[in-house]
Amino acid sequence: MMIEMIEENNPFTSQTFVNTWLKYYNESRSGLKFDFFEGLEFIKNKGLPLYSNVGSDMTNGLFYTLYGDKVKKPGNRVFLVHDVPSYFAIPEFGKRGSLQLKKINQYRGYMIDLTKYKDIDGFLAEKLPAKERSKYRRRLSGLTSSFDVDFTLYHGSIERDTYDMVFDTFKALLKKRYLSKKIDYHVLKKWNYYRDLVYPMIHAKEASLMVVYENSEPIGISLHFHTDTIFIGAITVYDIDYYKFSVGKIMIIKLIEWCLEKKFEVFDFSKGHFDYKEKLSDITYVFDYHILYYPKNLVSNAIATGLGWYYRLKQYLRVKNVNLLYRRVLFLLHPGENHKGKSGLVYRIMDDKSEVSIKDAISIDFRKSEFRFLKIIINNFLYIHREHINDIAVFRQGTQLYQIRGKRETQWVAIEKEIRG
Fold first, then answer.
1. pTM for the predicted model, two decimal places
2. Minimal CA–CA distance to 222: which of 181, 269, 190, 265?
3. Phi and psi based region of residue 246 (left: phi greater than 0; alpha: psi -120 to 50; beta: remaining)
4. Residue closest to 269 by CA, chosen among 406, 109, 97, 100
5. What angle do CA 276, 280, 282 make, to 5 degrees?
């Protein structure tokens, strides 16, 4: 599947994206334009005649046109364009003039051709066997029967106060998720950039946020970018205290359903391999880095060759999962930053109820922040017993024993160890 693209439709070359990226990563200095490139701006390397696209590797897919007949004496210059999806039908590649192209594979991507499906039921029927479809519906029913849940997609407008609250929670959930995985997540270091970027792009319909609310509190958040016909996933997270309910998988299906209703043609999962992407996608593609250089110039040729070796090595190490080891090492090397707020819980479900008595137990408001550590225990209780959160009460006996009491079931829990960062 090849997709014709118009430069003006690409969210990663929009004026909002370009200006925000230049503000954070080029001290607000303007990007450089060349008349033989349409759809791209560049910044120059400080020491080399190397020009990299504005946005660097922080886009989820670039498109451009190169007019070979306009290339006049490129000299020793080299142009590096990151993240060009192989499914973009980029024109003029046969007319590069005196510039030559090296294409270096970097990441695998996954996408769904939405034009093949009438609605979400038809999509699920083709992608999932009956047993998995039934499992998905049970998980969705479990989530909605245990909580007051609302799925909201912000695309075209969002109140500033709501946006700030969602982005604060977004960051907190990402930090919580990657603390549990003990991996340094590079996006968190760029959070102020994303916070400034996404708000105006939502209002321009170049980006969107899906938020899963439980009693007005976000428990799942997903960021995406848009062209007129392509929906591009970027960052997704859910509260791991709700992992039994498969919130992440439910969000993905809800997003695909929304895209089908809005007549998008492509659902692009973008970079990175996950089993669910492979299962739900129709097409696998690659993100290429494009290196354009002048082979007759010694300096240009040497820089291009060096870049080619460098990015092939990075890809080889990525295939060998060295990047995950690198992220874990970074996590360990920054204990103050990465471990701040770290928490954990060791608890025991008390099957022998003769050990405890309700005598002297006092009722507590489990929604208060001081009892937040109980959330995962309560959620697991709700999942197993199909109770609703509004129908339970929690009692405390001493400092370590808690009773969760629902309409049908009761459970005693002993807190044996709580870790707080």
1. 0.90
2. 269
3. left
4. 109
5. 135
